[in-house]
DNA sequence: ATCAAATCAATGTGATCGCATCGTTATGAC
DNA sequence: GTCATAACGATGCGATCACATTGATTTGAT
């Protein structure tokens, strides 16, 4: 129907995303504690009043930014896989999803910095924690499906429980990702380890 | 010589540790952003002036708390292993060091919450980041020594590069630890996965 | 005993924060 | 056209923060 329901402009969702993106940029650069109405408004190139209008409470602003980050991440994965990861070739999908977790370009680096800030916030903010748990539940479930399909396709002999293998892969990838982020591991090394772990799931011997 | 160099009491280091511990308690409970002079003073049971006296700048207070957390962690590991981990039976030391990373009692849970807060801070605070890198360098080096000794002792056939294996083990353990912390993985499951990974390093087939 | 330095508490200060409030403007419904 | 209302900008307010300042007190050294 109407693209604009009310008021001037009224590209409501668009504006919200623009502001949420500004929050993410600040978080990536200087952390969550640097997020304030003034800071966000300046970064987004809008008035502080507008920020407050779209997000009456700071809590909502932060949560919107978190959701926005997840949406961006999901979109990026889908773009790289070329569709729904669950219907893509399982091994390729596994490789993309897991290697995208480790920072290797500005975009992934920024995303992981943001994510790391929110993981800390989740420890003292139940609203974020709930979203985080839901996000991980979906993530691990999706990974488990991929692992199972990969096992079925390959010549996996015994076959580890898909769910367990999925969690193991994710944990390894996330741990390595943080090491890369703080600069104690090279992106290439992390990637190699992840590929080896994926090969292991396929019944091949890891390097 | 003199335990007290100057002034009343002058149990300088002791007081600093007491205040640093208060900081850690606050971080564990409500996160880094809840740390303020007033809050710390109240938690430590001292005047706000004293906090300021021992830590003229907040930056120093935070860094002292970080160092304190590391010292506590090191002491706990040594206590559990019963001496220097590097001279203990390698497989036992590996098991202790890695399984202690995942939260399974109030102490380890608190420690990991604190650690998680600091990992986020390290992304926007170079002083903390430097300390963090140094800490990990030592941690991974120590793990690598243990892995090498474990490989020598066991019947490991080929033998993965000890350094690579060490990083892999640590990454897996830390990833699992965070999953446990936010409640999407059970402590027992995480422990099992870690034990399996250690067995793998020893040349045994993982479960 | 005296003194200098360390310790400590109390108060002040400027800045910043989240949020409330108020007034103006722009827009769509009628 | 008019009217209700969303959109928006600007300003105000109370709270809190890190840090500075001040002054009193306690100790060890001499």
UniProtKB/TrEMBL annotation, chains A, B:
Q: Read off the InterPro entries from this record.
A: BetI_C (IPR039538), Homeodomain-like_sf (IPR009057), HTH-type_TetR-like_transc_reg (IPR050109), HTH_TetR (IPR001647), Tet_transcr_reg_TetR-rel_C_sf (IPR036271)
What Gene3D superfamilies does the database record attribute to this sequence? Tetracycline Repressor, domain 2
Task: Please list the residue ranges annotated as the HTH tetR-type domain.
Answer: 13-73
Q: Which residues bind DNA?
A: 36-55
Which Pfam families did the record assign? TetR_C_6, TetR_N
- Signal peptide span per the entry? none
> Which keywords annotate this record?
DNA-binding, Repressor, Transcription, Transcription regulation
* Keyword Flavoprotein on entry: no
UniProt keyword Endoplasmic reticulum, yes or no: no
> Could you tell me what this protein is called?
TetR/AcrR family transcriptional regulator
Which species is this UniProt entry from?
A: Actinomadura yumaensis
């Amino acid at each position: 129907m109407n693209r604009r329901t009310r008021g001037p402009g009224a590209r409501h969702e668009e504006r919200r995303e623009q502001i949420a993106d500004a929050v993410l940029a600040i978080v990536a650069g200087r952390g969550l504690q640097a997020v304030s109405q003034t800071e966000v408004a300046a970064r987004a190139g809008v008035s502080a009043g507008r920020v407050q209008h779209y997000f009456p409470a700071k809590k909502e602003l932060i949560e919107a930014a978190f959701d926005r980050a997840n949406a961006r991440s999901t979109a990026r994965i889908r773009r790289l896989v070329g569709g729904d990861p669950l219907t893509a070739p399982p091994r390729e999908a596994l490789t993309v999803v897991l290697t995208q977790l480790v920072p290797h370009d500005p975009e992934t680096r920024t995303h992981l910095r943001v994510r790391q800030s929110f993981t800390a916030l989740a420890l003292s903010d139940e609203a974020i924690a709930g979203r985080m748990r839901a996000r991980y539940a979906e993530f691990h479930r999706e990974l488990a499906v991929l692992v199972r399909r990969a096992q079925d396709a390959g010549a996996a002999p015994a076959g580890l429980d898909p769910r367990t293998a999925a969690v193991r892969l994710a944990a390894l990838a996330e741990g390595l990702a943080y090491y890369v982020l703080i600069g104690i591991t090279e992106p290439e090394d992390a990637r190699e380890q992840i590929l080896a772990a994926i090969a292991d799931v396929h019944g091949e011997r890891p390097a």
